[in-house]
UniProtKB/TrEMBL annotation:
Coiled coil: none annotated. Keywords: Membrane, Transmembrane, Transmembrane helix. It holds the Pfam family DUF3429. The chain crosses the membrane at residues 12-34, 46-66, 87-114, 134-153. InterPro entries: DUF3429. This is DUF3429 domain-containing protein.
Length: 154
């Protein structure tokens, strides 16, 4: 079966995706467990990593657009989807951390729906949602835990 039609993500993609969750989970938990003097640094690193991953996720759409036929009406959408996530990450890093965190959180949630759009329009592999859904849930939950920590722990 062609990989674009497979319904299960490749094992390597799943393994690397899971490994990519480590900074999200440890950063979120670190905000609750780290001594107060280190919390700002933990949050900065979490936000920086999240912005990097948003750029990476946007680049996937750039690659999908490059695969599209020259006269495809989907390529401009894909190109737009490739630029918006890193721009949101950049904006989030420019904001105070307590405001940047929800921007990044919303960006990840919205990007999931953009990825579903790409699958539904035949420009992303059928297996992509099976990879993205659990990863997105863990990322969004981690960012919610982190945001809660900034509001409660300080």
């Amino acid at each position: 079966m062609h990989p674009f039609g497979a319904t299960r993500p490749p094992r390597l993609a799943l393994g690397l995706g899971l490994a990519g969750l480590i900074p999200f989970v440890t950063g979120a938990l670190g905000l609750w467990l780290t001594p107060e003097a280190w919390r700002d640094r933990v949050l900065e690193e979490l936000l920086a990593y999240a912005a990097i991953i948003l750029a990476f996720m946007g680049a996937i759409h750039w690659g999908l657009a490059m695969r599209a036929e020259e006269n495809s009406d989907k390529a401009p959408v894909q190109l737009g989807l490739s630029v918006i996530p890193p721009l949101l990450g950049w904006v989030a890093l420019a904001l105070p951390n307590v405001l940047g965190l929800p921007v990044i959180l919303v960006a990840f949630a919205a990007l999931y729906f953009a990825d579903i759009w790409a699958v539904n329009h035949g420009v992303a592999p059928v297996w992509y949602p099976a990879l993205r859904k659990p990863l997105t849930i863990i990322v969004v939950c981690s960012l919610l835990v982190a945001w809660l920590a900034t509001l409660v722990v300080g």
